[in-house]
Amino acid sequence: MGPVNVGLDIGATKTLGVVVDAEGEILAGVREATEPGSDGVVRTAARVVEALRAATGEPLPGTVGVGIPGLVDHERGVVKHAVNLGLDGDWFELGDLLGDRLGVRVVVENDVNAATLGAVAMSGEDDLVYVSIGTGLAAGLVLEGRLRRGDHGAAGEVGHIPVDPNGVLCECGQRGCLETLASGSALAAAWPSPGQVPPAQALFAAAQGGDPKAIALRDEFAAGVASAVRVLALAVDPRTVVLGGGVAQLGEQLRVAVASALLDQAASSPFLASLDLAGRLRVVPSSYPVAAVGAALLGR
């Protein structure tokens, strides 16, 4: 086996690990339920790496890259504000703790930034914005081949741009943020879905079936995502915009809805129309573990 890298995507419900070769091909993948709490997160991550070692029959001695939600100090390998993971203290020393357990170097990155690197590998484009539409709304930026984290690690926090002063109170403390319109949690609140069908899928299916309320909600949601795309595109003018996150399981339906909203927004503006934002959109295939692949690339 040639040089390979290990990447972990640690989320509140699951931890996904992959082994990726020099060409970016996925050689093995393992998924485990994430145990909450500091010890649980480290224990789960270590278990996934051991399972990858067993699956490949290799010791996998190289660097392990980790993508995790929250504010990450990439240099120190520490994380805080990791929502729903129940980590201890202010800065949690994930890199050192997991590295000691596995006997390898561990590098840590915010999960959206890791996914952005995965989107670069998937698309072959090195100038892109990745828009993650999950529980929240955030973006990652790779500009001319360089990941932009920002001076305070807040580059791409487009979900917290307020667009409606009379809107819903956001968890960040501001009112009417884009995230309150264009996120998985916003969809779940607007269109609760009983049973196993995710709210986004249920809403889009109802809209497809002609339900007027569902059509209005879908269009409002798509317009919110389009507004995030427009803000990002006007700020940094990326070559490609990739839609990802849990809601991107909708696939082509999502791309079409957001592209349509972008075309509507550009209809009265020759300037916006000339930028062809709708034509720059792509969506992550539902089977592609973009954050885990991006985390593996951190090891390089």
UniProtKB/TrEMBL annotation:
InterPro entries: ATPase_NBD (IPR043129), ROK (IPR000600). It holds the Pfam family ROK. Belongs to the ROK (NagC/XylR) family. This is ROK family protein. It comes from Nocardioides aquiterrae.
